[in-house]
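Q: what does this look like with NAP bound?
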Amino acid sequence: MTTTLITGANKGLGYETARRLIAEGHTVYLGARSAERGTAAAAGLGARFVQLDVTDDASVAAAVATVEADGGLDVLVNNAGIEVRSPEGGIIGAADLTADVMREVFETNVFGLVRVTHAFLPLLARSAAPVVVNVSSGLASLTRAGKGYPGVAYPASKTAVNMLTVQFAEAFPRMRINAVEPGYTATDLNRHQGVQTVEQGAEIIVRMARLGPDGPTGGYFDASGPLPW
Ligand SMILES: NC(=O)c1ccc[n+]([C@@H]2O[C@H](COP(=O)([O-])OP(=O)(O)OC[C@H]3O[C@@H](n4cnc5c(N)ncnc54)[C@H](OP(=O)(O)O)[C@@H]3O)[C@@H](O)[C@H]2O)c1
C-alpha cells in the first residue's frame, strides 16, 4: 500500500492529482489549509483530509503527527503554490517588484516547501520506496526565462524549487525527488487563462508520484520529458 500526501489539494492540479492517485490505489492525504474546503474535497474523492498550511509550523507538525499515527508516508507531493498579483490583477514585473511581494511568494512556494519537506523527511526515510514530487513551473527555467511572462517573484520561487530539488536529491539518494512542470493549465492560479485541462496538467505530477526505486531523481520534467534548467 502506498500512502501519499498532496499539499494544497482542495482544488486545481492538487485535487486532480489526488483523484488520479486514489484511482491508482494510493491512500491519499488531501492537504488543505482550510478545514472546510479540505473536508469537502476529501469527502468527494474518498481521500483523508489533513489540515496543512505550508506557512505554519504548528499546522505542519500536527499533520506529521496525524500521518505518522496512521502508519507513515511514502510519497510527498509539494503542490501548494501561489502567484501574487497587483491589486488590479496585473502580473508584477521588475519595475514594481518589492521585497514584500517577493517574501509573500517565497513564504508559500519556497519556505513552505522546505518546511513541509523537512518535517516529513523522517517518515519518508522509513518508507521502502520514498518519492517527492516538487510542483515547479516551466517559468523556473533560466534557459527559457524572459520570454513572454514578465513576472519575477513567481518564476524566481520556482527556480529556487528546482535548486532545492537537485540538492535534496543529492542528499537523499534512496529517495526519488523530482521537479515537474504541469504546463499552462486552467486553474484559479491564473484566473483560468491556462490552455490545458487539469487532467492534462496533472499527468506529469501523477507519473512522477508513481516512480519506483529505479526511476530518475534530481530531474526537471514535463509530460514530454526532461526540461532545460
Ligand atoms: N496552473 C498552471 O498553469 C501551473 C503551471 C505551472 C505550475 N503550477 C503550479 O501548480 C501548483 C498548483 O497550482 P494550481 O494551478 O492547481 O492552482 P490553484 O488551483 O490556485 O491551487 C493552489 C492550491 O494551493 C493551496 N495553497 C495556497 N497557499 C497555501 C498554503 N499556505 N498552505 C496550503 N495550501 C496552500 C490553495 O489552497 P486555497 O484553496 O486554500 O487557496 C490551493 O489548494 C502550484 O504550485 C503552481 O505554482 C501551476
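The mean pLDDT is 97. The longest strand covers residues 27-32.
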